[in-house]
Write the structure tokens for this entry.
Amino acid sequence: MPKHYLFNKHMIMKKIFIPIVITSCVCFSACTISRSRYSTYQYHKHIENQNLFVTEILHREFDVIKRTLQILERASNNLDDGKPVSKETFSEIVDIILGFSDKHHQEKEDKVLFPLLKDKNEGEKKDFLGRLLMEHVSERDMIRNLAGAISNFHQGKKAQKKITKIAYTYIKHMEKHIQTEEKILFPWVNMVLTRDEQVMLIKKFEEMEKEDIEAGVHEKYTAMIERLEEQLGIYIE
Ligand SMILES: [Fe+2]
Ligand SMILES: [Fe+2]
């Protein structure tokens, strides 16, 4: 298991308390904090701190993505080792990736951040953005393939091997993608975006997620992640 995953929950707990001022909006009740131990998406409630960086938001979303990857890895290990793991567990993981962690994160990049960066007119970086966009396409293809393989879960060993093969490829691909964004994309974003652009992007991010926040989507998926972590025995000190 990749070592950096071991710190995710601890880091997320810490992040609840970092000085980003967040106030409750009507749709997100205060009791969320006590109900959800890790409250991964607390900062989505309403971002008041105008000094928040776009990359901080994206970086924090990686916490959720990494936790989801860890769950997928553990479920795949169990399946390979003949330990109990159900088709429903894999289906739920795909559901989280499609409906929550990956969807929100990639949409912010694809629809809002990358188009703005493209206009920064830095030739070589256009290729870099194209590469990241292609990686997003590959990731979505892999998840589609994974969902297809999961539908054949009960066909036996060969069908299950296909699931874990796609899962491991996806995990590896995502780890590399996250690393590239953290090492190259985020420092670049922090360098080229003006304060006004940062504020404008953060507002757009909020608008994109408004409906999901109001519908309690973040809470639903955070609860799913926590339940799967417990179910699979992923406990982090
Ligand atoms: Fe990203
Ligand atoms: Fe990305």
About this structure: Residues 94 and 143 are 7 Å apart (CA to CA).
